[in-house]
Amino acid sequence: MEVINSLEVQEQKNLRRKKNASITESVHGHCAHVGQISKGCVSCFFPTIAMGADIGKECQCSCPMCFYPHKQTDDLSDLNVFIQRTSELHAAIYKPELAPDTFCFRSAGEPLLYMDEIKEFIDIFDKIKVKHGHHVYKHLYTNGILATKKVLTTLKDWGIDELRFHVTASLYSPHNQKNVFDNLELASKMGFITTVEEPSWPGHADLLKSYLPIFNDLGLVHLNLTEVRVTPWNKERIIASSTKVPARIYKDGVWFLYDNGLVYDIMDQVADNGFCFSVLDCNSSVEKYRFFRNIDCNYDLSMITPDVFRL
């Protein structure tokens, strides 16, 4: 594993951005994207009212780049967080100003293994909508394995707006990746806003590029490529998996694995082929921006314009 200069990484990224006229730099340059990105990403850049819940830790996959420990189990701390988050949302039933604009069902594992817990949040959102007419934009992360027609129908009935698929996760499981693509296609046909959110993993460079025409044919709306954080839990796995492409890491607040320009290679291919979906470079700069976004008290929310987000 090679440690590289963070300033050199940023310089390389800036050079790649300048070479592609289709790339837009929004939010003072922190948000680099092709096309309009997801409404679910608004809260990463602006201090809107946003909430999320980590729904459990179990997962069917063992991805090498996952920055959580493998084979986790739920514990009391998860229950305490769950109770706290549902309590906060219950307050919004009576005080509409507390209702979130967006809500994210995420996980250190696979959220669709926890349908009962998701339903508890949905019941609260339904009460908020009946009482105040306020619709909470809800997006949910999944590896797609359990996103069958039956489950998708339930999620549609519950008013989930957007599904974010980690399609390569199934490569690290006993499950068939074709089923995940079938589930993604079905979700698109059922009217979900479909997003693929993938780690910008150098070892998947050729694979992800080969997926782009498939994503286009399946009606994908957004492609988010996230820079891989390096943690004590995935460091050794990254080293072990980086035989063909040596791991190069840099520190920008926390440690990241440099993708060697993969996200911009994909942006170039999407722009050159006129594919229908957006691409977001969700990199270390976005991580820092999200952390500090509430500090600047002079923010003008009118900066959220249709040319950036698909509202």
Overview of the molecule:
The protein contains 10 helices and 15 strands. The protein is α/β, with parallel strands linked by helices. Strands 2-3-14-10-9-8-7-6-5 form a 9-stranded mixed sheet. It has a 4-stranded mixed sheet with strand order 1-12-13-11. It has a two-stranded parallel ribbon with strand order 4-15. A hairpin with a 4-residue loop joins strand 2 (24-26) and strand 3 (31-34). The mean pLDDT is 90.
Which percent band covers the strand fraction?
Answer: 15-25%
Structural class: alpha/beta
Mean pLDDT: 90
Total helical elements = 10
Largest sheet, in brief, is: 9 strands, mixed
The portion of residues assigned to helices is 25-40%
Helix and strand element order: EHEEEHEHEHEHEHEHEEHEEHEHE
Radius of gyration from CA coordinates: 19 Å
Could you list the spans in which at least 5 consecutive residues all have pLDDT below 50? none
User: How are strands sequenced across the largest beta sheet?
Assistant: 2-3-14-10-9-8-7-6-5
Give the number of DSSP strands.
Answer: 15
How does the overall form come out from the CA principal axes?
globular
Terminal Cα span: 41 Å
Question: What are the SSEs and their pairings?
Answer:
Blueprint: E1 2-3, H1 6-19, E2 24-26, E3 31-34, E4 37-38, H2 42-45, E5 50-54, H3 76-94, E6 102-106, H4 115-132, E7 137-142, H5 149-157, E8 162-165, H6 177-189, E9 193-199, H7 205-217, E10 222-226, E11 228-229, H8 235-241, E12 248-252, E13 254-257, H9 262-273, E14 278-282, H10 284-292, E15 309-310
Parallel strand pairs: 1-12, 4-15, 5-6, 6-7, 7-8, 8-9, 9-10, 10-14
Antiparallel strand pairs: 2-3, 3-14, 11-13, 12-13
